[in-house]
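Sample log: C-type lectin domain-containing protein.
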Amino acid sequence: MAKEQLNLFIYHLHFYICLYQFHYINENKTWTEAQQYCREKHTDLVTVTNMKDMERLINISAGDQREAWIGLFSEPEFKRTWHWSQSEVKFNESETNWNTNEPNNVDGMQNCGIIWKNLKWGDVYCDARLCFLYRNSSKKFHLIQENKKWTEAQSYCREKHTDLISGKKQIEDEEVKNEISHVGSYTYILTGLFRDTWRWSDGSSFSFRHWNKGFDYQGRYDGQCALTVFDDGGRWRNENCTERKPFICYDGEFF
């Protein structure tokens, strides 16, 4: 009986997780036209929640197409919002550990997060080349002492392990303290914390981002929209929303 209940639970779990479908539309439209098309015929332009979604996007592309609009866009009135690289970890303002006078946002362009040996947080320029912490599939934490920009560090972690370390609970794990015990007190260590002005067309708050390694988190992206580039592993790039491109819609709801 217990086994039957477990199988039923797994069936329902699979059903809910797969309750949305992606549709590649091989018609060239501006981002706004694509959004209108998706809302009329489906649900909306696609929202991407994790790397499994990215794999599905790549698999549904026609193969001969290079890129397509997704549902991510930025407008001048949008305020920068903090997120974690691991999309299942939600940023909570009440669960922070900022150092004194941090985040100080020098020049208004410090959009990536670091920690020091004392586990206090700070913000830095995202193109600063620093060591970084990642979590692997066994939920173990490791320090990589090869200096990389934030986007490069994120790509490294996702390609070889799981993702950049994310959330106060992970950062304060005893294993992390041991892993960084040998570094200097003033060594900057990148975490999965970042902030941006990008939003999803359907209004959802998913923090997953998959920008190309050259993406500049310090830039202003007013009136810009996001494309997934199939011959770059599906990584995203920003583009003027008035350009005409194929696009991807989705049906259903995300859980």
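Observation: The longest strand covers residues 20-29.
Observation: The chain is about 25% helix and 30% strand.
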